[in-house]
Amino acid sequence: METLIGQSPSGAAPSARGPAPSAAELIKDVGLANFRKDVIEASQQVPVIVDFWAPWCGPCKQLGPALEKAVLAAAGAVRLAKIDVDQNPEIAQQMRIQSIPAVYAFFQGQPVDGFTGAVPDSQVKTFVERLIKLSGGGASPIEEALDFAKAAIAEGRPEEAEGAYAEVLQAEPQHPHALAGLAKLAVARGALDEADEFLAAVAEDKQGDAEVASARSALALAREAENVGDLGPLEAAVAANPADHQARLDLAIGLHAAGRNEASLDHLLEIVKRDRKWNDEAARKQLVKLFEALGFDDPLAIEGRRRLSSILFS
């Protein structure tokens, strides 16, 4: 398949930003001589992040690589100017820098945002995304590739989705949404051990990410379904005795594995309606896993949560 990083979500044509600039173009050491050119003038086109740092500053050594990584991932939507305050005290004084690391963002010649101190990578990423939106820029190439993958899955093209996720991981090896997406695709084709490996590769601080939780729930449901077996006897058992909650729960698990999510949801809600406390609220807990596996914005999950609330609070 064609390279997606740097293309539009459709994969049919290059992004309006064109080929991604080189690292040397995106990240520059700036001093008094080139401040106007590489910050003020450059910010007329895209936001320029100015990182005030010094070689002796420990937190600067943490923040600098995170800024560089986020700027490179944005592929030209923002740029980074690094200013050594020891070598450029005039600029630091003009900007009234009191402590470092200090970060300012310029757009159209004016400072528009900033922060001080070392912050987590996730906050740096959010900062960069905010600047891109402020400047009217679109999604980053990584976001475009992730959107392409989701669209490919929805349209029944899992191989193309896998390729898009793989390209994201080439640019950002532990991207949680790409790993979660690959895990879900592995679950869909029954490669549960492979899905486990993808989820194990997610960084510890990203384990609570909603996409990762969704993939983890999808895997848990698939593991449970391995023990269900043929659905025929379970359907017969529920038809013969609607109060057989265990048979109904097993049936719901099997229906989800078969892709019949609406029927699975109906049976789980029926258990909650009949006996919400049964087996330590097993049906409600199963519903939570199903909602997570479907995704927060899935229409069936939204409707299911509404129906569950109606039962619980009636």
UniProtKB/TrEMBL annotation:
The keyword Metal-binding does not apply. Gene3D superfamilies: Glutaredoxin (3.40.30.10), Tetratricopeptide repeat domain (1.25.40.10). GO terms for molecular function: protein-disulfide reductase activity. Residues 1-20 are annotated as: Disordered. The keyword Electron transport applies. PROSITE patterns: THIOREDOXIN_1 (PS00194), THIOREDOXIN_2 (PS51352). Pfam families: Thioredoxin (PF00085), TPR_19 (PF14559), TPR_20 (PF14561). InterPro entries: Thioredoxin-like_sf, Thioredoxin_CS, Thioredoxin_domain, TPR-like_helical_dom_sf. It comes from the Bacteria. One of its GO terms (cellular component) is cytosol. Residues 7-133 form the Thioredoxin domain. Residues 8-20 have a biased composition (Low complexity). PANTHER family: GEO12009P1. This is Co-chaperone YbbN.
